[in-house]
Design a protein that fits this description.
alpha+beta, two-stranded antiparallel sheet, elongated
């Protein structure tokens, strides 16, 4: 089947992280997070603290979208 009309709708979004503990918890909740050693978690925490140390914190951006196709 061929679609003669296709629309693309983009959705840009983001999240500003202003505290390290939620970022660390998120990373640890991902696959493989439970395998980190205490030293690696400590290093991750220090890196997260450095990321959010600025006045604006750390921004995570994302883009998603959808195609609407009609015959």
């Amino acid at each position: 089947e061929v679609f003669h009309h296709v629309e693309r709708h983009d959705f840009s979004d983001g999240l500003r992280v202003i505290a390290a503990p939620p970022l660390v918890r998120y990373v640890l909740s991902m696959p493989g997070g439970e395998e980190l050693t205490p030293e690696e978690v400590q290093r991750l925490s220090a890196d997260a603290e450095a990321l959010v140390a600025g006045p604006a914190g750390f921004e995570v951006t994302k883009s998603s979208g959808v195609f609407i196709c009609r015959p």
